[in-house]
C-alpha cells in the first residue's frame, strides 16, 4: 500500500515485459524455432514464460499472506488451474503431507511450463500426486476427470488471462466440482473506485498484448456467481490494498450448492 505510487506498478510491469521481448526473440531464433516467430499465440506463450521466470518467484512474497492461508483449505481431488511454473507447490505439498489432498491435476495449457511443473512436483515430493495436464478446461473429461468429482478448484492469478472466455470457462469448471466442493480464488480485478478504473482501462489497452492476454478490469465476482448455485460465498476485496491500488485483489472461498 504505497499510496499514489501504486499507480506506477502496472507501467513498471509493462516495461519489464517489453525488456523481456528481445531475449524471447533471440532465444527463439537460436533454438531454431523460426516458425514460432510468425505464430503469435506460440510466441506470446513463450514470451510470458520468460517474463514469469523472474517475475513469478520474485513477487510471490507480495501475495503469500493471502494465498497461503487460502491453500491450507485445499482437500481431496484438486484442480490447480493455470499454475504456470508451480510457485505455490510448497504450500500444496504441506497440505499433502497433512493428508488433506489425495490428487492434484495442474491444468496448464502453456507447453513452456510443463517441464518446470514436473520438476517442481519432484522437488517437493509430489511426483506421484501432482500431475501436469497440458489441456484447456473443456478437455478435462478426455483426461479421465469426471464432472461432479472434484473437491477443490484453485485459481490464483488465472481468470484474468483467459481472454473473452472467462464466463464459459468458469461455468465449465463449476460442473467439475462435486456438491459441497470448494473454489479457492485469488485474482486481481477491477478497482471499486471509478477514477482508478479509468486508469486501469487506459493501461488495459496494451496490457493484454504484453502479458499473454491478461485483463485487469474483470468483474470476477459477477463471473463466479453466474456459474451456478453456491451454498456459501465468502469472497472479499483485499482490505490491505489502498485506494490507488491498480491491481486490487479478490480472494476467498465459494462452496457449490448440494
TrEMBL record:
SUPFAM superfamilies: S-adenosyl-L-methionine-dependent methyltransferases (SSF53335)
Annotated transmembrane regions: 7-26
Entry keyword Transmembrane helix: yes
One Pfam family of this chain: Methyltransf_23
Highest rank taxon of the organism: Eukaryota
Keywords, sorted A to Z: Membrane, Transmembrane, Transmembrane helix
InterPro entries cross-referenced by the UniProt entry: SAM-dependent_MTases_sf, Thiol_S-MT
Full protein name: S-adenosyl-L-methionine-dependent methyltransferase
Amino acid at each position: 500500500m504505497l499510496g499514489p505510487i501504486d499507480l506506477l506498478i502496472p507501467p513498471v510491469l509493462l516495461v519489464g515485459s517489453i525488456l523481456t521481448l528481445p531475449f524471447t526473440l533471440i532465444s527463439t531464433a537460436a533454438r531454431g524455432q523460426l516458425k514460432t516467430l510468425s505464430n503469435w499465440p506460440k510466441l506470446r506463450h513463450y514470451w510470458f514464460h520468460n517474463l514469469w521466470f523472474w517475475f513469478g518467484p520474485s513477487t510471490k512474497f507480495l501475495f503469500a499472506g493471502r494465498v497461503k492461508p487460502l491453500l491450507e483449505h485445499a482437500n481431496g481431488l484438486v484442480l490447480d488451474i493455470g499454475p504456470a511454473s508451480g510457485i505455490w507447490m510448497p504450500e500444496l505439498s504441506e497440505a499433502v503431507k497433512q493428508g488433506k489432498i489425495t490428487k492434484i491435476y495442474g491444468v496448464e495449457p502453456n507447453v513452456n511450463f510443463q517441464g518446470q511443473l514436473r520438476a517442481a512436483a519432484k522437488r517437493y515430493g509430489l511426483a506421484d500426486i501432482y500431475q501436469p495436464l497440458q489441456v484447456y478446461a473443456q478437455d478435462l473429461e478426455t483426461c479421465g476427470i469426471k464432472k461432479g468429482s472434484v473437491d477443490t478448484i484453485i485459481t490464483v492469478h488465472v481468470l484474468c488471462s483467459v481472454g473473452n472466455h472467462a464466463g464459459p470457462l468458469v461455468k465449465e469448471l463449476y460442473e467439475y466440482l462435486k456438491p459441497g466442493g470448494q473454489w479457492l480464488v485469488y485474482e486481481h480485478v477491477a478497482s471499486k473506485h471509478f477514477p482508478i478504473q479509468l486508469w486501469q482501462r487506459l493501461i488495459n489497452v496494451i496490457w493484454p498484448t504484453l502479458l499473454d492476454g491478461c485483463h485487469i478490469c474483470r468483474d470476477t465476482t459477477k463471473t463466479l456467481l453466474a456459474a451456478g448455485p453456491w451454498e456459501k460465498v465468502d469472497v472479499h476485496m483485499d482490505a490491505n490494498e489502498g485506494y490507488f491500488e491498480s491491481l486490487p485483489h479478490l480472494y476467498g472461498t465459494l462452496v457449490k450448492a448440494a
